[in-house]
Amino acid sequence: MSADPRTIAIDLATQNLLAKAPLAMELGRKFAAAGHTLALVGGPVRDAILGRLGNDLDFTTSARPDATKKILNNWADAIWDTGAQFGTIAAKFGELTVEITTYRSEVYDANSRKPDVDFGDSIEGDLKRRDFTINAMALELTTPEPLFIDLFDGINDLVKKIIRTPGAATDSFSDDPLRMMRAARFAAQLNFTLDSEVTDAIILMQDRISIISAERVRDEFTKLIMSDNPRIGLTVLVETGLAAKVLPELPQLKLEIDEHHHHKDVYEHTLTVLEQAIALEDRLGGPNLTIRLAALLHDIGKPKTRAHIAGGGVSFHHHEVVGSRMTKERLRALRFSNEIVKDVALLVFLHLRFHGYASGEWTDSAVRRYVRDAEDLLTHLHILTRADCTTRNKRKADALAATYDSLEVRIAELMEEEELGKIRPDLDGMAIMEILGISPSPKVGKAYQYLLDLRMERGPLGTDAATAELLSWWEVNGPKK
């Protein structure tokens, strides 16, 4: 006879919690001594059962924020009460971070971006307001023995790998529309599928995401794309219509046929590029938001640049230029940092650069410009360019890979010979002004750029040759006599 899933769940959760964070039991004892209840709740319970408990623990309690803070005083390494108005006190214990929140309920009205928060009196009410059943389980720690609480059959949904809401999905998404994106994110993170009621509710209520701030949408989308399998979550967003509200450029790619006819559409090609970029991102030290966004957005300029070719087929000339501009607009709308916006847009702009030399005819000048234009994103560009080859023709794919291998070798050789990452003209601004006898002015910048172009084209010139070139340039571009 097989063991009861609940028995297995409480055993796993308790064992993993004790092993990872024995402090949790001490917290339970302190809250019990003060006359309050305390339970591990939400994601940490789910992750404890799955054996993936991290260093961030969430608790729910009958204690009000002031009482929680009093219990933690003179014990925690640090305490933050910035979330006290929402019932949350955070604390740090070594490498462990805890958030302890008073039982609560929160509801959005039809036009609000912020929830109305009411404190509750029972854990049952608190769990009922949770987003999904797999996050609505709790481990009560102020009882004589840890008590597993699962009012909505979350453990069975965990076993079945299903995303389901505790109550009606429409009610849940009405209370907090961001939960629609969170459903896609959990599907991607856990490799789960959405319950049909959840899918139907997202399709019905997709417009309600508009009341959520761009920052919250960005944070949820970032968690999704940084998951182990973002394709699953992105597919949910597109198929439910939610992507059309938060990242409309993505579903629009489904309308375009890849110019090489290797793929059903550019959308499928894009998801494959993303997956292939993820497979290569160890070169960047692990999961990397910049390369994932660049892979996802690299072809978003295609719908606006599509043109029919006489005799059949389509072209997307300059889609990298249009796509770079669109990338800036979308990432700014989602409130990504200026650095992310700049870097991702640059990668989108450069993603076709290699194909101008795909036959392998790379001059030293072309290599220098390739490195110079990539700035600090050369490894990112290597990854994006390689990932962008999704042809099913093995011979062609192998040829492209071999050509790019040779390019990387040539870059490494020139890096060693010329320090390509630090390319500068042979004369700096001060030397230019001294040789030409001029003061700081736009002319100095133009002269500097001229010498930089020479350096890129011909390699190191040396001071004497650079001076001669500068004087020749000045004869033509200096003050007219």
Summarize this entry quickly.
The chain is of the alpha+beta class and 481 residues long. It contains 24 helices and 13 strands. The chain folds into three domains: 5-160, 2-Layer Sandwich (Beta Polymerase, domain 2); 247-422, Hypothetical protein af1432 (Orthogonal Bundle), CATH 1.10.3210; 424-477.
List keywords for this structure.
single chain; 481 residues; alpha+beta; Beta Polymerase, domain 2; Hypothetical protein af1432; 3 domains; seven-stranded mixed β-sheet; two-stranded antiparallel ribbon; 13 strands; 54% helix; 10% strand; elongated
Question: What would you say this structure looks like, in words?
Answer:
The structure is a single chain. With 481 residues, this protein is an alpha+beta fold. It folds into three domains: 5-160, Beta Polymerase, domain 2, CATH 3.30.460; 247-422, Hypothetical protein af1432 (Orthogonal Bundle); 424-477. It contains 24 helices and 13 strands. The protein has a seven-stranded mixed beta sheet. Strands 6-7 form a two-stranded antiparallel sheet. Strand 12 (307-308) and strand 13 form a beta hairpin. Helix 1 crosses helix 3, helix 14 (266-280) runs antiparallel to helix 15 (289-297) and helix 15 (289-297) packs across helix 20. The protein is elongated, with a radius of gyration of 29 Å. The termini are far apart. Mean pLDDT is 85; it is low at 258-263.
What's the structural blueprint in terms of helices and strands?
Blueprint: H1 5-20, H2 23-33, E1 38-41, H3 43-50, E2 56-61, H4 65-72, E3 78-80, E4 88-93, E5 96-102, E6 104-107, E7 116-119, H5 123-128, E8 137-140, E9 147-150, H6 154-160, E10 162-163, H7 169-175, H8 178-190, E11 193-194, H9 196-205, H10 214-225, H11 230-240, H12 243-246, H13 249-252, H14 266-280, H15 289-297, H16 302-305, E12 307-308, E13 314-315, H17 319-333, H18 338-350, H19 364-374, H20 378-387, H21 394-418, H22 429-436, H23 442-458, H24 463-477
Parallel strand pairs: 2-5, 10-11
Antiparallel strand pairs: 1-2, 1-8, 3-4, 4-5, 6-7, 8-9, 12-13
